[in-house]
């Protein structure tokens, strides 16, 4: 990959990568850091990478950096503890996308990540398995479970009222 192809990657994928990490983490500062680190890593390996594989490489790198940040924060004790039971919102919501965002945040991390990669970013099962390090059948199971959880959350009676 040459300098022009690298610049094309920045133009094409920076926003997609940022959006994916932001949806997965809900933390703008962490998303900025992960995206920047991913592009730095891409630049460090620019001589060895094929331009056609740059998108997959970036998402894989960003995903792994995000997981590392979660582990580091959890070990350091700085990760905000969120109890799903305390997230009840008694106000009436009619915005389905807002409810979907709430439901996504309640999913386990791995389920949220694979759903975001599949449904928001449009990756196929094989690409998701490459990015996350899971096998394809695990990816399919996590997506199936996440979609069922999302469906059940949205079908709740208080949301439909």
Please give a structural write-up.
With 161 residues, this protein is mostly helical. It has two domains: 81 residues, Rna Polymerase Sigma Factor, Chain: A; 79 residues, Arc Repressor Mutant, subunit A, CATH 1.10.10. It is 73% helix and 0% strand. It is built from eight helices and no strands. The radius of gyration is 17 Å and the shape is globular.
CATH topology value of the largest domain:
Rna Polymerase Sigma Factor, Chain: A
Assembly state: single chain
- Which shape, going by the Cα principal axes? globular
User: For the terminal residues, how far apart are their CA atoms?
Assistant: 54 Å
Helix content: over 70%
SSE succession: HHHHHHHH
Report the total helices.
8
Strand content: under 5%
* Class based on secondary structure composition and strand pairing: mainly alpha
Total individual domains: 2
- Which residues form runs of ≥5 with pLDDT under 50? 78-93
Kindly state the number of beta strands. 0
Under CATH at level 1, the class of the largest domain stands as Mainly Alpha
Report the radius of gyration as a whole number of Å: 17 Å
Overall pLDDT, averaged?
Answer: 81
Q: Judging by the overall fold, what is the CATH architecture of the largest domain?
A: Orthogonal Bundle
